[in-house]
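Summary of Year 1 activities. Much of the first year was spent building the evaluation harness for sequence design. The harness presents a backbone, in tokenized form, and records the residue chosen at every position. We chose the following record to illustrate the format because it has been used consistently in internal testing since the harness was completed.
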């Protein structure tokens, strides 16, 4: 489940960034490719929603709805709540049977103003921006955290190669999120077990809630944690690094596995950091 290393070096603007028309064409070329794969890849995608919850809860989690992120407008956070409510309708109660693939983008669909989605905050090319449907990545983040505590297998996950805002009440390790950009940056996992799983997702006044259920008594438990967390200053640029580990507990014993290594450019000045030389950067990029 170890993801590929992000590109943490400052990069020149791509041709598609300098010419909006080219960017539009590039995005839709990738989207069309994804639509084609959904039809012809031979996978069985999870599509059934059920209001009847499976009997055994695997994991639960919640995340705060309204957060002040840097200097961004709070109205974007308020709009995000509307966007989350619309997206959750397509995800709450989804049943993932053995052999089925969960695809976030396939289930939620293309968020448009015509569907009621509002402008929310997005992150693009390392900078906060505004886009219709912005903020619904929060659901993907929550689902990924639930899935990490299960025997489900993540098959597609994307992450930002930068850390845009200081921690504000963070309760899970840095680098355990999942970013979405319809539809070619999707979040997917497959059920390779003989159990059926189900997601329940809803909003309260202050939190986005998520629970993962199954149809059999779980004979496993997982604990996800971080190691080697630190902020580095290399030259005039700040970076953040850590490792994501998982402890697997079962009747026959327990074991640990490395899930991910994160090394991200930081877009703010942390209060504590360690000075490092270019060798640290080169060592990670390997």
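For this record, the design step produced the sequence shown next.
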């Amino acid at each position: 489940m170890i993801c590929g290393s992000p590109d943490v070096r400052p990069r020149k603007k791509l041709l598609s960034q300098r010419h909006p028309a080219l960017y539009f064409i590039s995005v839709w070329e990738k989207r069309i490719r994804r639509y084609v794969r959904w039809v012809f890849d031979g996978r069985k995608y999870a599509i059934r929603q059920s209001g009847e919850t499976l009997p055994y809860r695997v994991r639960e989690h919640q995340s705060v709805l309204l957060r002040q992120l840097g200097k961004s407008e709070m109205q974007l956070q308020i709009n995000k709540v509307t966007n989350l409510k619309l997206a959750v309708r397509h995800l709450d109660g989804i049943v993932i049977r053995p052999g089925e693939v969960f695809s976030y983008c396939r289930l939620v669909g293309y968020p448009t103003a015509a569907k009621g989605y509002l402008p929310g905050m997005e992150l693009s090319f390392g900078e906060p921006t505004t886009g219709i449907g912005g903020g619904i990545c929060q659901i993907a983040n929550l689902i990924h955290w639930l899935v990490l505590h299960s025997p489900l297998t993540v098959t597609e996950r994307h992450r930002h190669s930068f850390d845009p805002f200081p921690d504000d009440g963070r309760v899970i390790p840095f680098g355990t999120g999942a970013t979405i950009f319809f539809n070619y940056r999707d979040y997917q996992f497959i059920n390779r077990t003989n159990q059926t799983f189900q997601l329940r997702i809803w909003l309260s006044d202050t939190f986005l809630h998520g629970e993962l259920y199954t149809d059999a008594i779980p004979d496993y438990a997982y604990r996800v944690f971080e190691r080697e967390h630190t902020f580095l200053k290399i030259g005039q640029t700040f970076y953040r690094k850590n490792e994501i580990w998982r402890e697997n507990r079962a009747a026959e014993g327990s074991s640990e596995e490395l899930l991910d290594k994160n090394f991200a450019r930081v877009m703010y000045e942390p209060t504590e950091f360690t000075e490092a030389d270019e060798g640290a950067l080169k060592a990670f990029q390997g």
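Helices lie at 15-18, 20-40, 74-88, 104-108, 137-148, 278-285. Quantitative recovery figures across the full test set are reported in Table 2.
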